[in-house]
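We close this part of the discussion by returning to an individual protein. Part of our work consisted of pairing the sequence of a single chain with a tokenised description of its backbone. No coordinates are needed to read the tokens, only the vocabulary itself. The amino acid sequence and the backbone structure tokens for this protein are reproduced below:
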Amino acid sequence: MKPKTRKFLTAGTTFCVALGIGSVMQYGDALADRIGYDAEAAPQPATGSPQLSVAGGPLKGEGVSTFAPAARVPVADTGATEVQLPGDPAAPRLDAPVPEAMTVAYTEAPAPQDTARIPRPVTITTPAPAKTAPPVCKARMTAEPQPLAMVQVTVEDGCRAEAVVTIHHQGMMFQGITDAEGVFTARVPALSEDALFLADFGEGSGAVATASVPEVAEVDRAVLQWQGDAGVELHALEFGAAYFGEGHLWAETPGDTQDALAGTGGVITRLGDGAISDGLMAEVYTYPSGTSQRDGTVALSVEAAVTSGNCGREVAAQSIQVNVGAEAEAVDLVMTMPGCEAQGEYLVLKNMFEDLTLAAK
């Protein structure tokens, strides 16, 4: 019975010691004192042959033989399920309460942040204000030929915003006003093939431009120019047209440029700015005689309306006529208008221009 009992005891003791060692690792010497464990007093394994000892030392002498363990005797299995061990109050009990598990406080590591949602600092760079180049304080002028012997005239002077400029061309004069950038443009009927244009701001400031306009040889032109509120108007009655009927061209019904390009009618161009006090104004009638698709006569005349601005006063005007194959001719007009009691009436002047006689080409 002892070997089997010892086996269980060894197994039980080893189990308890293992638990004890595990507990000592956690609780230290206090738990070692509780279970009565003394490492120095623990039995040590024997080496060599076992010896019996009594007080004073091992047994020696004759008649004493070496101790040999008794032979194992088979033990019948009684079916017992429990083993009774001798009581030992100093030995640890298997049913002793096991110390409660140690509670360790811990803090969960913060969840990884979604870097895509973390706002990144934004650096805003304010651009330095652009430096504005100083205006070019010198007048410049260009002249670009256009269809129907017209010329696109452009005048620029960065130091003359909203300034009055006078345009001169072959004896014709008119005035305009530059915009906020010092630019003025106008579409001007050319009066010569080698067209010369002069822009004059006064005080010796101005510019010149030229353009080659060979189409001038294909058109007839009549110019009426005046200054201020003269009340004069250029009228053209094409191919027997009645006053205010179809073919009667004047400032309020100037005609269609497309008809002129097609050779079926004329067109009136008004030049100048009525906002200028005593400004120079001009009206130009153009008919494409070199490409005309019609036969007949165009009657040209000047009318002067009696107004509150010119009644009883002297009025001056000038006409310039440029016909195909002929020299340009100019006629100056100076007349005294009727008194103010005649306001609303018109004077018809037929000797300022020659009528045009046209043949289809």
Notes: The radius of gyration is 64 Å. DSSP finds three helices and 19 strands in the chain. The longest helix spans residues 2-27.
